[in-house]
Amino acid sequence: MELRPFHLALAVSDLEQAREFYAGVMGCExxxxxxxxxxxxxxxxxxxxxxxxxxxxxxxxxxxxxxKAVPVPHFGVVLNWAEWENLAARLxxxxxxxxxxxxxxxxxxxxxxxTMFFADPAGNMLEFKAFRDPDQLFAS
Length: 140
Known about the structure:
This protein is of the alpha+beta class. It folds into two domains: 7-51, 2,3-Dihydroxybiphenyl 1,2-Dioxygenase, domain 1 (Roll); 62-136, 2,3-Dihydroxybiphenyl 1,2-Dioxygenase, domain 1 (Roll), CATH 3.10.180.10. It has helices at 15-25, 81-93, and strands at 7-12, 29-33, 37-42, 45-51, 62-65, 68-71, 78-79, 98-105, 113-119, 125-131.
């Protein structure tokens, strides 16, 4: 099956903060934009930030995975190992605060993966991961 890019639209309270974060910190190219939205190229996927009046302020629920509280909902991209390491270093260099620090989950087991969780300035939760063996993405 051919992998197709996803399209994801997010609510943000400040478009310029979103531009600084996704273009400046994350290194995403910007695409089309308007007074109320900006397209970003997130590793070949279309991420659109839409300006809204306010963000929900309720605390996000979490599930425990590998003894860590994983926020729900969240989104991200599965990168290759080198891309993941480069992104983790880039985020650290920009002083991004991690909800779950970059690290290895399920070490030595099926599905071993590098993962990190952090929020954008609007509070949207992101997870970026990489699998030691990419063929184990859906392994059980």
